[in-house]
Amino acid sequence: MNGATITSFLPPDHPRSLCLQYGHVPLTTHGILGILAAVIFFPIGVLCCMIDRRSVCARCGEVLSDGCS
Description:
- This protein has helices at residues 15-22, 32-40, 42-51; strands spanning 26-30, 53-57, 63-66.
- With 69 residues, the chain is α+β, with helices and mostly antiparallel strands.
- The chain has a domain at 25-66.
- It has a 3-stranded antiparallel beta sheet with strand order 1-2-3.
- Strand 2 and strand 3 form a beta hairpin.
- Helix 2 packs antiparallel against helix 3 (42-51).
- It holds the Pfam family BRI3.
- The chain crosses the membrane at residues 32-51.
- Keywords: Membrane, Transmembrane, Transmembrane helix.
């Protein structure tokens, strides 16, 4: 780190405060429609599976990526 100080109103052991200090822990899940498209329409369906994914932080629950939106 660069020695910067983070000021927050959250207690130091709060999950969001830990994510501010150490970064998010991404947890990615794929939707059932994307998985079915990947199996049925194999070469092109893998692209659909990659679009139909959602990433959330395992520590604080913040949505990091919500598919193609």
